[in-house]
Design goal:
Blueprint lengths: L2 E9 L3 H12 L2 E6 L15 E7 L5 E6 L13 E7 L2 H11 L4 E9 L2 E8 L5 E6 L7
Parallel strand pairs: 1-4, 5-8
Antiparallel strand pairs: 1-5, 2-3, 3-4, 6-7, 7-8
């Protein structure tokens, strides 16, 4: 069993451009899933924005990003990142969730979602927002 922690950048309408820029700098693989792709459109004007994206390289670079929907508050530089814990073992991810959730505010309960077998978000007692999930293979198509 293994997990990875990844910086997850929160933007508003610029996630695709940021990911493309990081890809041009670090190389590797670029993956982007829009709100339309994930069947999660809340505002038709944001349908083609990034719900989930990442750049990974064989040299160890890994960053994720998404466009915060207009239905959520967002101010540039405030709450600009999440810590993402990704794994392949549901029991392992659930155990980390249980431990982190003590005294935390659950933003999205840990449960299966359309784009992942297990996904959840919480903010711990120190104000750090964590996303725990089972990694889906968006490059296999």
């Amino acid at each position: 069993m293994t997990i990875n922690t990844v910086t997850h950048i929160n933007l508003r309408g610029d996630a695709r451009a940021a990911l493309e820029f990081y890809h041009s700098v670090f190389g590797g693989d670029l993956a982007v899933v829009t709100y339309t792709d994930a069947h999660s459109v809340q505002d038709p004007g944001e349908a083609d924005q990034v719900m989930w994206g990442e750049v990974t390289s064989g040299k160890g670079f890994h960053v994720m990003a998404y466009d915060v929907p207009s239905s959520r508050t967002w101010e540039q530089g405030t709450g600009s990142y999440f810590v993402s814990v990704r794994g392949k073992d549901a029991d392992e991810i659930a155990a980390y969730w249980d431990a982190l959730s003590a005294e935390a505010t659950v933003v999205v309960p840990l449960a299966p979602v359309e784009w992942s077998p297990l996904y959840g978000m919480l903010t711990d007692q120190f104000g750090v927002t964590w996303v725990l999930d089972i990694a889906a293979d968006y490059n296999a198509a």
